[in-house]
Specification:
This protein has 202 residues and is α+β, with helices and mostly antiparallel strands. It has helices spanning 11-18, 40-59, 113-124, 176-179, and strands at 25-28, 31-34, 63-65, 71-74, 77-79, 83-86, 100-106, 131-135, 139-140, 142-147, 153-158, 165-167, 172-174, 186-187. The strands form 5 sheets. The protein has a 6-stranded mixed β-sheet, with helices on both faces. Strands 1-2 form a two-stranded antiparallel sheet.
Amino acid sequence: MDVPEHEKLTIKDFFDAIAGVEGRYELVGGVAYAMTGAKEAHNIICSNVQTVLVPAGKQKGWRTTSSNTAVQTGPTTIRYPDVVVDCGPPNAAAMTASKPTIIVEVSSPDTAVFEHCSKLREYQDVESVDTVMQIESGIALVKIHRRQEDVTWTEETFEEFEVAIPLPSLGTSITLNEIYDTLEVRPRARLKVFRIDHSHRF
Protein backbone atom coordinates (compact mmCIF):
# COMPACT_ATOMS: atom_id res chain seq x y z
CA MET A 1 0.00 0.00 0.00
CA ASP A 2 1.36 3.41 -0.96
CA VAL A 3 1.98 5.93 1.79
CA PRO A 4 0.53 9.43 1.17
CA GLU A 5 3.21 12.03 0.51
CA HIS A 6 2.11 14.13 3.47
CA GLU A 7 2.80 11.21 5.82
CA LYS A 8 6.35 10.59 4.61
CA LEU A 9 9.35 11.69 6.64
CA THR A 10 12.20 13.93 5.60
CA ILE A 11 15.75 13.02 6.59
CA LYS A 12 15.58 15.50 9.48
CA ASP A 13 12.17 14.19 10.58
CA PHE A 14 13.61 10.68 10.64
CA PHE A 15 16.63 11.50 12.77
CA ASP A 16 14.47 13.52 15.15
CA ALA A 17 11.99 10.64 15.43
CA ILE A 18 14.56 7.93 16.23
CA ALA A 19 16.49 10.01 18.76
CA GLY A 20 16.29 8.13 22.06
CA VAL A 21 13.99 5.44 20.63
CA GLU A 22 14.78 1.79 21.36
CA GLY A 23 15.37 -0.48 18.39
CA ARG A 24 16.87 0.33 15.02
CA TYR A 25 15.18 1.76 11.97
CA GLU A 26 15.96 2.59 8.35
CA LEU A 27 14.26 5.21 6.23
CA VAL A 28 13.21 3.96 2.80
CA GLY A 29 11.47 6.39 0.48
CA GLY A 30 10.32 8.50 3.42
CA VAL A 31 8.97 5.55 5.42
CA ALA A 32 10.71 4.29 8.58
CA TYR A 33 11.00 0.52 8.90
CA ALA A 34 12.20 -1.45 11.93
CA MET A 35 15.35 -3.51 11.44
CA THR A 36 15.49 -7.07 12.73
CA GLY A 37 17.89 -7.94 15.51
CA ALA A 38 21.20 -9.57 14.60
CA LYS A 39 22.29 -13.02 15.73
CA GLU A 40 25.68 -13.77 17.27
CA ALA A 41 27.25 -15.03 14.04
CA HIS A 42 26.29 -11.79 12.31
CA ASN A 43 27.88 -9.70 15.05
CA ILE A 44 31.06 -11.80 15.12
CA ILE A 45 31.53 -11.39 11.37
CA CYS A 46 31.10 -7.62 11.65
CA SER A 47 33.66 -7.51 14.47
CA ASN A 48 36.11 -9.65 12.50
CA VAL A 49 35.81 -7.41 9.45
CA GLN A 50 36.39 -4.29 11.51
CA THR A 51 39.46 -5.88 13.11
CA VAL A 52 41.04 -6.03 9.66
CA LEU A 53 39.76 -2.77 8.18
CA VAL A 54 40.23 -0.39 11.12
CA PRO A 55 44.08 -0.41 11.17
CA ALA A 56 44.27 -0.05 7.38
CA GLY A 57 41.80 2.84 7.47
CA LYS A 58 43.68 4.65 10.22
CA GLN A 59 46.84 4.67 8.11
CA LYS A 60 44.94 6.67 5.49
CA GLY A 61 43.10 8.86 7.98
CA TRP A 62 39.82 7.05 7.26
CA ARG A 63 37.29 5.80 9.78
CA THR A 64 35.77 2.33 9.92
CA THR A 65 32.56 2.21 11.88
CA SER A 66 29.82 -0.24 12.74
CA SER A 67 26.10 -0.45 12.03
CA ASN A 68 25.31 2.81 13.85
CA THR A 69 26.73 4.87 10.98
CA ALA A 70 24.07 6.00 8.53
CA VAL A 71 24.54 6.23 4.78
CA GLN A 72 22.17 8.41 2.78
CA THR A 73 21.39 6.59 -0.47
CA GLY A 74 18.60 8.86 -1.73
CA PRO A 75 16.69 12.09 -0.99
CA THR A 76 14.51 10.29 1.57
CA THR A 77 16.42 7.06 2.20
CA ILE A 78 18.81 6.27 5.05
CA ARG A 79 20.52 2.91 5.35
CA TYR A 80 22.64 1.46 8.13
CA PRO A 81 25.25 -0.89 6.63
CA ASP A 82 26.92 -3.39 8.95
CA VAL A 83 30.34 -1.81 8.40
CA VAL A 84 31.23 1.50 6.71
CA VAL A 85 34.63 2.87 5.72
CA ASP A 86 34.28 6.66 5.54
CA CYS A 87 37.09 8.59 3.84
CA GLY A 88 35.51 12.02 4.21
CA PRO A 89 36.59 14.72 6.68
CA PRO A 90 35.85 13.87 10.33
CA ASN A 91 32.80 15.47 11.89
CA ALA A 92 31.85 14.25 15.35
CA ALA A 93 28.36 15.74 15.06
CA ALA A 94 27.54 14.24 11.66
CA MET A 95 24.50 11.96 11.43
CA THR A 96 25.64 10.30 8.19
CA ALA A 97 28.92 9.16 6.69
CA SER A 98 30.35 12.10 4.74
CA LYS A 99 32.12 10.05 2.07
CA PRO A 100 31.40 6.32 2.40
CA THR A 101 33.85 4.31 0.31
CA ILE A 102 33.54 0.66 1.35
CA ILE A 103 30.20 -0.80 2.41
CA VAL A 104 29.85 -4.19 4.12
CA GLU A 105 26.53 -6.00 4.46
CA VAL A 106 26.21 -9.30 6.32
CA SER A 107 23.19 -11.38 5.37
CA SER A 108 21.15 -13.65 7.59
CA PRO A 109 18.63 -16.42 6.88
CA ASP A 110 15.74 -13.99 7.38
CA THR A 111 17.18 -11.29 5.10
CA ALA A 112 14.94 -10.96 2.08
CA VAL A 113 16.69 -11.41 -1.27
CA PHE A 114 14.80 -8.42 -2.65
CA GLU A 115 16.04 -6.22 0.19
CA HIS A 116 19.60 -7.44 -0.34
CA CYS A 117 19.49 -6.56 -4.05
CA SER A 118 17.71 -3.26 -3.46
CA LYS A 119 20.36 -2.11 -0.99
CA LEU A 120 23.15 -3.08 -3.39
CA ARG A 121 21.68 -0.89 -6.14
CA GLU A 122 21.32 2.00 -3.71
CA TYR A 123 24.92 1.76 -2.54
CA GLN A 124 26.15 1.57 -6.13
CA ASP A 125 24.34 4.87 -6.83
CA VAL A 126 26.33 6.64 -4.09
CA GLU A 127 29.14 8.39 -5.98
CA SER A 128 31.84 7.89 -3.35
CA VAL A 129 31.26 4.15 -2.87
CA ASP A 130 33.76 2.02 -4.79
CA THR A 131 33.33 -1.36 -3.08
CA VAL A 132 30.34 -3.24 -1.69
CA MET A 133 31.05 -6.47 0.19
CA GLN A 134 28.19 -8.92 0.74
CA ILE A 135 28.92 -11.63 3.29
CA GLU A 136 26.79 -14.70 3.96
CA SER A 137 26.60 -15.56 7.66
CA GLY A 138 25.45 -19.16 7.31
CA ILE A 139 27.84 -20.42 4.63
CA ALA A 140 31.33 -19.50 3.47
CA LEU A 141 30.51 -17.10 0.67
CA VAL A 142 31.55 -13.50 -0.03
CA LYS A 143 30.62 -11.36 -3.02
CA ILE A 144 32.60 -8.25 -3.90
CA HIS A 145 31.13 -5.56 -6.14
CA ARG A 146 33.67 -3.05 -7.49
CA ARG A 147 33.21 0.23 -9.32
CA GLN A 148 35.36 0.43 -12.45
CA GLU A 149 36.91 3.52 -14.02
CA ASP A 150 34.13 3.59 -16.63
CA VAL A 151 31.60 3.65 -13.73
CA THR A 152 30.38 0.12 -14.46
CA TRP A 153 30.39 -2.49 -11.70
CA THR A 154 31.97 -5.94 -11.62
CA GLU A 155 31.17 -8.83 -9.28
CA GLU A 156 33.52 -11.45 -7.83
CA THR A 157 32.62 -14.44 -5.67
CA PHE A 158 35.03 -15.83 -3.06
CA GLU A 159 34.57 -19.21 -1.39
CA GLU A 160 38.13 -20.33 -0.63
CA PHE A 161 39.27 -19.60 2.91
CA GLU A 162 42.91 -18.83 2.13
CA VAL A 163 42.40 -16.59 -0.91
CA ALA A 164 43.08 -12.88 -0.28
CA ILE A 165 40.26 -10.51 -1.25
CA PRO A 166 41.92 -7.26 -2.42
CA LEU A 167 40.53 -3.94 -1.19
CA PRO A 168 42.65 -1.54 -3.29
CA SER A 169 41.18 1.76 -2.11
CA LEU A 170 42.00 0.80 1.48
CA GLY A 171 45.40 -0.64 0.58
CA THR A 172 44.74 -3.99 2.22
CA SER A 173 43.05 -7.34 1.74
CA ILE A 174 40.95 -9.76 3.77
CA THR A 175 40.41 -13.52 3.69
CA LEU A 176 37.46 -15.73 4.56
CA ASN A 177 39.60 -17.12 7.38
CA GLU A 178 39.62 -13.64 8.92
CA ILE A 179 35.97 -12.94 8.16
CA TYR A 180 34.69 -16.18 9.72
CA ASP A 181 37.28 -16.43 12.50
CA THR A 182 35.93 -18.42 15.52
CA LEU A 183 32.82 -19.46 13.56
CA GLU A 184 32.08 -22.88 12.13
CA VAL A 185 30.80 -22.23 8.62
CA ARG A 186 30.74 -24.73 5.80
CA PRO A 187 31.24 -24.26 2.07
CA ARG A 188 28.19 -23.85 -0.09
CA ALA A 189 26.58 -27.23 -0.84
CA ARG A 190 27.22 -28.47 -4.36
CA LEU A 191 25.27 -30.96 -6.40
CA LYS A 192 27.00 -34.30 -6.89
CA VAL A 193 26.31 -35.84 -10.26
CA PHE A 194 26.47 -39.61 -10.53
CA ARG A 195 26.89 -40.99 -14.01
CA ILE A 196 25.78 -44.48 -14.95
CA ASP A 197 28.07 -46.50 -17.13
CA HIS A 198 25.79 -47.76 -19.89
CA SER A 199 28.64 -49.46 -21.68
CA HIS A 200 28.63 -52.41 -19.27
CA ARG A 201 26.84 -55.48 -20.61
CA PHE A 202 25.57 -58.39 -18.60
